Amino acid sequence: MSTEQFHVDEVSPSYWRVTFDNGPVNLLDPDTVEQLAVLVDRIEAAPDLTVVVFRSDTPGYFMAHWDFLSDTSRVVGMPLGPTGLHPYLDNFVRLSRVPVATISEIRGRTRGAGSEFVLATDIRLASERAVLGQFEVGVGAVPGGGPMARLGRLVGRGRALEILLGGEDVPAARAAEYGYVNRLVPDAELERVTDAFARRIAAFDKVAVAGIKQLVDVATLPADDELARGLDAYFATAGRPEHRPFVGLLLEHGLQRPDGVETDLGTAIGRLRQGS
Amino acid sequence: MSTEQFHVDEVSPSYWRVTFDNGPVNLLDPDTVEQLAVLVDRIEAAPDLTVVVFRSDTPGYFMAHWDFLSDTSRVVGMPLGPTGLHPYLDNFVRLSRVPVATISEIRGRTRGAGSEFVLATDIRLASERAVLGQFEVGVGAVPGGGPMARLGRLVGRGRALEILLGGEDVPAARAAEYGYVNRLVPDAELERVTDAFARRIAAFDKVAVAGIKQLVDVATLPADDELARGLDAYFATAGRPEHRPFVGLLLEHGLQRPDGVETDLGTAIGRLRQGS
Amino acid sequence: MSTEQFHVDEVSPSYWRVTFDNGPVNLLDPDTVEQLAVLVDRIEAAPDLTVVVFRSDTPGYFMAHWDFLSDTSRVVGMPLGPTGLHPYLDNFVRLSRVPVATISEIRGRTRGAGSEFVLATDIRLASERAVLGQFEVGVGAVPGGGPMARLGRLVGRGRALEILLGGEDVPAARAAEYGYVNRLVPDAELERVTDAFARRIAAFDKVAVAGIKQLVDVATLPADDELARGLDAYFATAGRPEHRPFVGLLLEHGLQRPDGVETDLGTAIGRLRQGS
Question: Which residue from B179, C55, C88, C160 has the highest number of Cβ atoms inside 10 Å of its Cβ?
């Protein structure tokens, strides 16, 4: 088993602070899937927990995206999770339903699987240095972790289609305008504002937090099988042979490294696809 | 029977202006429930009515919240309303479906049950001196009048969870940014703008107003039983013995009086719960 | 058969640019319905198409609204479209589901049927000189092309009811604030920004574009029968004898001409209905 990617700081029995750390750009990979499943188990079972903050200390990156060099056969072969869904999706579905408030404290880039992760948390606070996006369309794939279902309901059809069919980088200000994140927080105050909001919820009764969230879930969450259709579409499109050469080109241009195309991935994909 | 809390000014057969008045902070109480049921009956039966404006002349308060000192056994024992729901919820459900445009003209605070009331009206115009919020989580309760169902659909999952799990005061500007209110209107123009908009609708055909609203209802209203689950959760949580001492502490600090903690209730609850 | 109202510029096999042109204010009429059906057939059948931009070169008007002087009996008698819906609605339903990104590049006024058209496209980019609106309530009618279903889901119940029951002109800035359009683009850059965004999508794989859109459809589109109820309500209300005199008055005041009441139709209707 590899090193833990999720560092859990149990600030108190009711408040955990989780820092994600996986290489220079915080990629998600098969280990992330297995370790996130364990973390969601822990959150589900913690009797007094009311709030969890997810964050990153990696300069420029919250969670870059899925690791294109990871072992696909390992991912495909993973046993199903407790919901009966593939564990990549099972993690996100279970995370969105934990009887606990979950907050993403977003500074830096979080695209693709990273965007899917923050969409599976409850509340997204973003510094003006946050960048979100679902660039998958640009590499010929349908995103697999639920953003059609989640963004469609969160920001409305028009803006969801712009984000998903355009695949552009979405800077924090536009993300806040669209409702992709809750709101902007000045970069220098991001930790302080998030921590104060979390400590507030940490002082509240779990029965109220869990009861409120359960009914917001009824009003807002997609059905599991709608999400399963998205993951099927991902495997069907991302697994095509036509998909590989362009990913190879992106890797040559610095994909998965902290500089190169990774810095402005949405823009770079458009430029490279258009051959200019 | 107590004095009428809803003063109805029948400006014309098609336009009514209703001013709410119940004590120094405009609390909702069992009399409010009974009187609102009568008012909704009247609105439903008015043949030419196309628009109703709800407003307050009480300085600083639109509707503070539910009266914590009211007779709970009287509320619990009320006979069910025409929809088969408890009358507290029945009023809001029927109000949201009247074949008439309903507008909340919001200046001052409207929290808890007051927020639930404005969410049951069609259109919310807010002066920059409006403050909304659902502070119930801070007193250990799940809100009972439908905000999980309504805010989840109105402002999206992320912002609904922030409002409901955080329980903070939501100033008018953020309420407009989130879609909790339709838009801001400069305080000095609130009556003029609301009245002009209402007079406009008052000149339109009832068959068009009613027909449009009925189809927006299909697209946007939650099912009655989703709302019923929320009221059940309220009674189960607000009725706990653990709930009472903190409400007592708030009453000592000026709850339900026009100054004291009532002015910044969301902030005050956070401070008192965190023991600082 | 009349002249083609939709001028199709096949920029490439993957990118079409369609300019609408029908008289001095771009009215929609029975010919529009028949020609749009043919165009949607073509879009559905184009094997490599991934993006279509809809636009207008008519000064001040994207699509004014339905032609009040058109032959109603011809419209009523039209054979049903492939979805089993009346072709007016069938066009919009099929357009919203084409496996292609559709973008409305909006400058000038687009009200009533014109607003319904842009709501049936995926993405709405608006210059600050765009004006949208559903004024039908002001002429005594329920809108027929789906805006109760679409706006209710796109901008939320409160803002949808304000737009539909108020029937006011919605300037571009408010349309962007409400999510009625995706966002504002500076007028001088509208063509350049829209074209760059379209060329980007034109470089992407059709399988990804179509697969993404299909799942956003699941999350966001209304059922066909909900739309059918709206068209029924339109025919029942717009066909009333009471409806005709006011339309006659509007025609006297310049309706369907590039100046007169057509310029500020929402405001003019309010003024004329209130008899001032």
Answer: C160
Contact call for C168 and B204, based on CB within 8 A: no
Task: Write the DSSP string, A157-205.
Answer: HHHHHHHHHH---EEHHHHHHHTSSSEEE-GGGHHHHHHHHHHHHHTS-
Task: Please give the pLDDT value at position B2.
Answer: 56
Mean pLDDT check: name the lowest of A158-162, A209-213, B19-23, C241-245: C241-245
Between the two ends of chain C, the Cα-to-Cα distance in Å is 43
Searching chain B, which residue's CA lies closest to the CA of residue A202?
A: B274
Burial of A275 (0-12, 13-18, 19+ CB in 10 A): exposed
B233 inside 8 A of chain C by CB:
no
Dihedral angle computed from the Cα positions of residues B153, B158, B160 and B162, in that order, rounded to the nearest 10 degrees: 180
| pLDDT classification of A276: cutoffs 50, 70, 90 | low
Question: What length is written for chain A?
Answer: 276
Distance from CA of A182 to the nearest CA of B (A): 6
Looking at the complex, report in whole angstroms how far the Cα of residue A232 sits from the nearest Cα belonging to chain C: 10
Chain A residues inside the 8 Å CB shell of C200: 166-168, 270, 273-274
Q: Which of B139, B158, B180, B163 is nearest to B270 (CA)?
A: B139
Q: What residues in chain C have per-residue pLDDT under 50? A: 1
Tell me, what amino acid is at B17?
Answer: R
Which residues of chain A make contact with C212, given a CB cutoff of 8 A?
137, 142-143, 148, 161, 164-165
CB C156 within 8 A of CB A157: no
CB of C205 less than 8 A from some CB of A: yes
Comparing CB atoms, the residue among A141, A166, A230 nearest residue C215 is: A230
Among residues C106, C85, C119, C77, the alpha carbon closest in space to that of C226 is found at C85
ipTM greater than cut 0.95: yes
Contact B148 A212 (CB under 8 A): yes
Whether A259 shows a pLDDT value over 70: the answer reads: yes
Task: Report the alpha-carbon distance of residue A225 to residue C153 in Å, rounded.
Answer: 21
Q: What is the pLDDT of residue C1?
A: 47
pTM for the structure as a whole? 0.98
